């Protein structure tokens, strides 16, 4: 199941984030997609939980592509939540002309375009603050999407070393985002001791 | 749950890929826009970091983000935050001679249950656990004082005899100095050993990843049988016994990082009669 999650999670996440159209009570409706990470994470985790339930696993006949089956589960989950009165999810657009999926990594609005441009610029500046070893780690782990084990092999280090480096890079990322004002400065910034460094980190 | 606590959990989930922390904060996130915003921005930032390269197809989910979610979906398959050390992991130079022991690093709730299940199934992989070992920690040891040479026993199952003494080692791989205070609390919530006197253990652990013994051991024969909770309080500045006592009484010594910069470890030991 771990491998199944690894293989399909990106596709299902894109589906949930990109939105889809559907019909309800005779109307063409469109779900705009989940733009916020916590909504996306929540729906993605719930989709796979449902898919991994024994009943759902037995219901999959094995003929149609499994991603389509996962998408149906995700779609039903979204529609169920939209019908819930307590739902805070994205409102539906009733224009059938937009009944096509959008790419969640592209920009949906000028506001979002600006946010993503700013964020990309910020991350570029953050990368400039890293040591060469850390930049190599970011390239392998984040940009090339390797596992910690693969990164360790590529860098000729242990997995423990890579894990420690990852924690330190994330911690520095948090500090950087707070320092730049992208994250609100809160007391919780002291939740993780700020001075802990990876042995090879000098910045 | 307060927003301050939620922010700590969000940060912990993010930095340590700690699915248990994420699980604990989910309910709060559903009703707090401020914390949602922090969460969204943290993970969006990480995903943006993944998109800074020249990859042919930018991914929506960064690798560490996907792994965190996988733990959320498949907690029993991904116990990456288990803090157990099997006896094969470390041979520790403790107060007396060579010993092997199990680090009882017992987070609360689901994580604890999962940890127990992992060990019960014999599925714990020593190397993986060593890799996942946190940079700060303490280990409790049973020291049998019968006979000429004291013998240090493993704490498998978290049990000691009332004739034993309880010893401790600590680990500090942060590269920084911390003050460590150890409290032993009985089932009634009373601190039975700590702070000062022969049974205290307050020191400034040096840096470095090795485990070091803490000098004093606690004789158990006067404490009776039953469960004991052991708290290791790592902080920048040693806290007064009074403030620790108040924290114990208020139930505020929750394992993990705290807003004041301290880090708390909790172990559980059951004292058996002779």
Mean pLDDT of chain A: 75
Q: Can you name the CATH architecture of the largest domain in chain B?
A: Sandwich
Shape of chain B: elongated
Number of beta-strand segments of chain A? 3
First CA to last CA of chain A: what distance?
40 Å
What coarse outline of chain A follows from CA principal-axis ratios?
flat
Poorly predicted spans of chain A: 86-101, 187-203
| Strand line-up across the major sheet of chain A | 1-2-3
Strand fraction of chain A equals 5-15%
Largest chain interface and its two residue counts?
Answer: A-B, 65 and 64 residues
Write down the secondary-structure element order of chain A.
HEEHHHEHHHH
Q: Provide the structure class of chain B.
A: alpha+beta
> How large is the count of helical segments of chain B?
7
E-strand count of chain B: 13
CATH topology value of the largest domain in chain B: Immunoglobulin-like
**What's the number of structural domains of chain B?**
2
Q: What is the radius of gyration of chain A?
A: 20 Å
Largest sheet geometry of chain B:
7 strands, mixed
What kind of oligomer do you see? heterodimer
Task: Give the termini distance of chain B in whole angstroms.
Answer: 43 Å
Number of helices of chain A: 8
In summary, what is this structure?
Chain A is mainly α and 203 residues long. Chain A has helices spanning 2-18, 37-51, 54-59, 66-83, 110-128, 132-143, 148-155, 159-179; strands at residues 20-24, 27-31, 92-93.
Question: Which helices and strands occur, and which strands form pairs?
Answer:
The complex is a heterodimer of chains A (203) and B (274).
Chain A: H1 2-18, E1 20-24, E2 27-31, H2 37-51, H3 54-59, H4 66-83, E3 92-93, H5 110-128, H6 132-143, H7 148-155, H8 159-179
Antiparallel strand pairs in A: 1-2, 2-3
Helix pairs in contact in A: 1-2, 1-4, 2-4, 6-7, 7-8
Chain B: H1 3-16, H2 19-29, H3 33-50, H4 63-73, E1 92-93, E2 98-99, H5 109-120, H6 126-132, E3 136-144, E4 151-153, E5 159-161, E6 164-172, E7 179-186, E8 191-193, E9 202-203, E10 211-219, E11 226-235, H7 241-249, E12 256-257, E13 263-272
């Amino acid at each position: 199941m771990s491998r199944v999650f690894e293989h399909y999670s990106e596709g299902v996440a894109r589906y949930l984030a990109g939105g889809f159209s559907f019909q309800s009570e005779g109307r063409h409706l469109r779900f705009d997609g989940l733009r916020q990470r916590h909504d996306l994470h929540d729906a993605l985790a719930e989709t796979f939980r449902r898919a991994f339930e024994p009943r759902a696993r037995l219901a999959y006949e094995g003929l149609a592509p499994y991603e389509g089956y996962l998408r149906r589960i995700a779609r039903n989950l979204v529609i169920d939540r939209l019908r819930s009165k307590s739902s805070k999810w994205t409102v539906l657009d009733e224009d059938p002309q937009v009944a096509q999926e959008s790419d969640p990594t592209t920009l949906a609005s000028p506001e979002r375009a600006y946010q993503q441009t700013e964020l990309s610029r910020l991350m570029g500046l953050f990368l400039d603050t890293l040591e060469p070893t850390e930049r190599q780690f970011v390239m392998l782990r984040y940009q090339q999407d390797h596992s910690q084990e693969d990164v360790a092999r590529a860098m000729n280090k242990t997995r423990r070393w890579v894990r420690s480096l990852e924690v330190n890079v994330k911690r520095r990322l948090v500090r950087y985002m707070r320092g730049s004002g992208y994250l609100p400065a809160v007391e919780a910034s002291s939740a993780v001791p700020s001075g802990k460094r990876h042995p090879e980190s000098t910045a | 749950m307060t927003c301050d606590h939620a922010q700590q959990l969000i940060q912990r989930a993010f930095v340590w890929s700690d699915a248990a922390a994420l699980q604990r904060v989910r309910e709060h996130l559903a009703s707090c826009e401020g914390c949602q915003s922090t969460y969204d921005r943290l993970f969006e930032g990480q995903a943006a970091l993944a998109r800074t390269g020249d990859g042919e197809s930018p991914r929506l989910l960064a690798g560490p983000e996907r792994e965190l979610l996988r733990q959320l979906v498949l907690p029993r398959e991904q116990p990456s935050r288990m803090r157990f050390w099997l006896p094969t992991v470390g041979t520790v130079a403790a107060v007396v001679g060579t010993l092997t022991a199990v680090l009882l690093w017992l987070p609360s709730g689901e994580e604890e249950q999962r940890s127990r299940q992992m060990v019960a199934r014999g599925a714990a992989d020593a190397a993986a656990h060593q890799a996942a070992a946190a940079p700060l920690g303490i280990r409790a040891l049973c020291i049998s004082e019968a006979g000429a040479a004291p013998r240090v026993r493993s704490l498998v199952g978290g049990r000691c005899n009332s004739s034993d003494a309880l010893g401790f080692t600590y680990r500090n791989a942060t590269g920084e100095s911390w003050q460590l205070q150890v409290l032993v609390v009985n089932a009634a919530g009373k601190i039975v050993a700590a702070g000062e006197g022969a049974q205290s253990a307050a020191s400034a652990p040096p840096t470095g990843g090795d485990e070091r013994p803490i000098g004093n051991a606690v004789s158990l024969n006067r404490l009776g049988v039953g469960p004991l909770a052991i708290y290791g309080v790592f902080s920048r500045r040693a806290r007064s016994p009074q403030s620790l006592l108040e924290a114990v009484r208020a139930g505020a010594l929750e394992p993990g990082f705290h807003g004041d910069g301290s880090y708390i470890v909790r172990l559980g030991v059951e004292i058996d009669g002779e």
